Amino acid sequence: MNRLSPYAQDILLSLLAEGQVKYFDEVQNISKFSLYATINPQDVGTFELSEPFLDRFGISVQISMPTSHDLQIILKGKDEKYSGYDELVQVPQVLTLDDLMEIWYQVDKIDFTTDANNIIHAIIREFT
To answer: What Gene3D superfamilies does the record tag this protein with (predicted)?
Structure first.
């Protein structure tokens, strides 16, 4: 995001805030969308991101570079497309697709109170 010019950032802010994009005389309303973005480290070629712009993102996850030890493990790894997969490294299946669909169905039926929604929202905001 911070490699975008301030003008392009303003266009995205308009989309995030108002659900519409203006381009010359034309206005496009965009009602349903998800925006996934990355931010590069501050260096030459990046622009500051405004607080109102950053506030439009519900969740942020900071991903750091792998450590030297992690890089060694990654570099020693084999591509399972060519060498098959290592059962010791694989996550075992604990649910069938039907089990997962049933869980999603049951969770979707849960009716949260306004207080519960507010608490969940507050917790998520603490991590962003």
So the answer is: P-loop containing nucleotide triphosphate hydrolases
Range of the domain at 101: 6-63+87-126
Determine if the pTM surpasses 0.90. no
SS3 of 103, please? helix
pLDDT of residue 102: 95
For residues 59 and 128, the answer to whether their CB atoms sit within 8 Å is: yes
pLDDT tens digits for range 63-99: 888 889 988 888 887 776 666 666 666 677 899 999 9
| 96's tokens | 């069938």
E strand or H helix at 6:
helix 6-18
Residue 76 lies inside a defined structural domain of this protein = no
Examine residue 97 and state whether it is found in any structural domain, yes or no: yes
Domain-located, residue 79: no
Residue 33's Cβ-count burial label (10 Å; 0-12, 13-18, 19+) is: exposed
The identity of residue 79, as a single letter, is D
Residues of the chain below pLDDT 70: 80-90, 127-128
